[in-house]
Amino acid sequence: MPKVLISDTLDSVAEKILLSNKIKVDVQTNFTEEQLIQKVSNYDGLIVRSATKVTKEVISGAKNLKIIGRAGAGVDNIDLKAAKEKDIIVMNTPGGNTNATAEHTLALLLSLSRKIPMADLTTHKGLWAKKKLKGNEIKGKTIGIIGFGNVGKRFAEMCSALGLNVIIYSKYFQSIKNEFPSYKTTDLNSLLKESDIISFHCKPNSDGSPIVGSRELGMMKNNAFIINTARGNLVSESDLSAALKNNTIKGAAFDVFENEPATDNVLFGLENVVLSPHIAASTNEAQVIVAEMIANQFCDYFNKNEINNSVN
Question: Which residue of 2, 160, 169, 296 pairs with 44 in a disulfide if CB–CB is 3.0 to 4.6 A?
């Protein structure tokens, strides 16, 4: 009987599906790297979310491991090269949290443009700060979307429905642009210059360097907003902090950070910043979907020798 370790918090439906398909399951979380190295060698499969870091060292010690599953889309926390060298399959669940992430991105945009966090805070304190809380409407604004995968596509739909002008920067968009005649496609520099709002829905550079630093921030409108619910290393946080303090741009909303959990950060305390702790995909509905998806994919692998959504 195959044995699977679930090392991050995952909806219980995953365990039920695996057990019903004659796959033994252990659920244990909050491992240190050393603890995970010692533990994972006893398992055929490992299921993680974003918290567990499946490093080269973890993979090297996984003598029986055949498959790693990421309940979600991003696999930045898994050493894909090390897994491939050991012929370990890595699979994810693309699309499972698409709507949740897109909705959270929209929530951050509205919170930022209408100053909702500050309005909530001051009102709870009994301060009727109406004059300080004049916001901006988003209808008619131009939003630049960097990346056009599942989340980027869904977010673009939402923005278009709300009356925003959508422009896209994505190397994949050219092949499908005829399906989206209302969206304009452009290069990165033009997008940065033209957009009132910029939202990231892409993978990081292959070398890990930020896509946006001081040079790119300097290209943006001084009343622009920047939103990131994708990856923590897409924007230089130190350069962004400086740009916000110097009024190079107007505001930012981030759900992801260069180092997580973010217990200290250069963006903390800035009034023109809205932050959340990497919860864009954290809805009850999305967590059930990704748990079901990864569990069923594991069942297909162990019981039918089928590989679905492999990323390596």
Answer: 2
